[in-house]
Amino acid sequence: MIYDIRHVTSYAYEFPVSSATLSLRVTPRSGPGQRCLDHALTIEPRPKSLRVETDFFGNSVTTATIDTGGLMALKVEARARVDIARQPIAPSGGGADWKIVAEAALEQPSLGAEAPAHFIFASPYIALSGPVTAYAARSFSTGRSIVDGARDLSKRIRAEFAYSPQVTDVSTPLDQAFAERRGVCQDFAHIMIAGLRGLGLPAAYVSGYLRTTPPPGKPRLEGADATHAWVSVWCGAKIGWLGLDPTNAIDAGNDHIVLAIGRDFSDVSPIYGVFVGSGAQELEVGVDVLPVQPAA
């Protein structure tokens, strides 16, 4: 399936801002099952400088410096065309016993970007928590396969937590969202990752998009009008990484478009900025993901 994506972020400032530096991760990744065919970035006002780099985890990062003086508004528009053709998902019962996978993760010699070692321990936004680990452990009985256990945890989060926009934000502690049993996709991904890591299972945070308009007869997915977040679980060397979306209790399939992968939200924030100025700001974000045609 080929998708056209439009992602617009607009800022309005109470008082003039003298300068701004933005770090942007809004270029879809290319990798197994996904190819970024085209990408264009427009920033208004025009930046003084632009620099494009690749971070440790393989994400494209654009750094923009704006130095116009008297800045009252800022608009970032990213457009992309992406070809998605993921392989069939792992079958029920797939993968080794989850305890074997946890042991194998510690024995992997690689320290490359996709090495499980980077995704086992606490990270800036994900503290390991006894209650969260105990919650996750209910999905991983003795002898259960890694795939079945991870899918069960994803489904339980979908069933037992309420999707409540504007109740939490990026600064909300993981334990608070867990205790209140509500939040948004970012919270659910962080909670699932914390539970898996607490059991010694490598789990990464994935930011991206969801198809805006579902196929005929299919329900609309939560989080489809903004950037979305889900989880990638390492299921052993044979299967590798499996994407799971706890917000919707589904595997990450051809409706999911990957922007960036990291340990948690701090590694993959689509737009992070430093502004020199004072006063409040208003933020608006809009995302459209529209199918163009089936993949060739």
Describe it.
This protein is an alpha+beta fold. The chain has 2 domains: 2-84 and 269-293, Immunoglobulin-like; 98-267, Roll (C8orf32 fold), CATH 3.10.620. The chain has 6 helices and 15 strands. It has helices spanning 98-107, 130-137, 146-160, 174-180, 185-198, 265-268, and strands at 2-17, 19-24, 34-44, 49-54, 60-66, 71-84, 162-163, 182-183, 203-210, 228-234, 241-245, 250-251, 256-262, 271-276, 281-293. The chain has a 5-stranded antiparallel beta sheet. A 4-stranded antiparallel beta sheet has the order 3-6-1-15, with no helix packed on it. A 4-stranded antiparallel beta sheet has the order 4-5-2-14, with no helix packed on it. Strand 11 (241-245) and strand 12 form a beta hairpin. Helix 2 packs across helix 5 (185-198) and helix 4 packs across helix 5. The chain is globular and about 60 Å long. The termini are close together. The mean pLDDT is 92.
